[in-house]
Design goal:
By secondary structure, this protein is an all-alpha fold. The protein has one domain. 72% of the residues lie in helices and 0% in strands. The chain is built from eight helices and no strands. Helix 1 packs antiparallel against helix 3, helix 1 packs parallel to helix 4 and helix 4 packs across helix 5. The longest helix is centred in the last third of the chain and has 26 residues. It starts with 9 loop residues before the first helix and ends in a 7-residue tail after the last helix.
Length: 157
């Protein structure tokens, strides 16, 4: 931890990192395990898209809202979770999607970038909603798993 979370309750923060990472990993593993030979390609294509990146980002942001982390601390939590799910690539995957959207004007692909921005925002909304659902104990978060398996976006309640 290098003393980064010393002032904050580091035990609670560490538990939140494990809890969020485990919940995300469970959904991704479920989608991969349930994929048939015919659907395998679609599942893995969706794992690498903007909705998925937005979901991961939104889920983690919402999971740490109670901690009032500064940007550096939040970045470290994200890195631990994303790289824990996709070793050495998860954090770069999510941040590259954000960077792509931040540099939209430079790319000159406004319609395509606009679609990516909408997809990223949809993913964020789904992730944030699943944190609320998980915290309330109503059901296990499953929007990401459903999206990866079917390509369909779950309606947010």
């Amino acid at each position: 931890m290098f003393g980064l979370f010393k002032q904050k309750n580091s035990k609670q923060l560490d538990e939140a990192i494990v809890r969020a990472g485990s919940a995300l990993h469970k959904q991704i593993k479920s989608a991969a395990d349930e994929a048939t030979q015919e659907s395998w390609k679609g599942v893995f294509k969706r794992m690498d898209d903007t909705v998925t990146a937005g979901y991961l980002f939104g889920y983690v942001q919402a999971s740490f809202a109670e901690f009032s982390l500064d940007e550096k601390e939040m970045d470290l939590c994200m890195r631990k979770i994303f790289d824990g799910i996709f070793p050495d690539e998860g954090y770069d995957f999510v941040m590259s999607r954000i960077e792509q959207l931040n540099n939209a004007e430079d790319m000159g692909l406004n319609i395509k970038i606009e679609e990516l921005a909408v997809d990223f925002g949809t993913g964020i909304d789904l992730g944030e909603n699943d944190v609320v659902v998980n915290s309330g104990g109503l059901e296990v978060a499953s929007s990401l798993s459903k999206y990866l398996k079917t390509g369909k976006i779950r309606a947010i309640a």
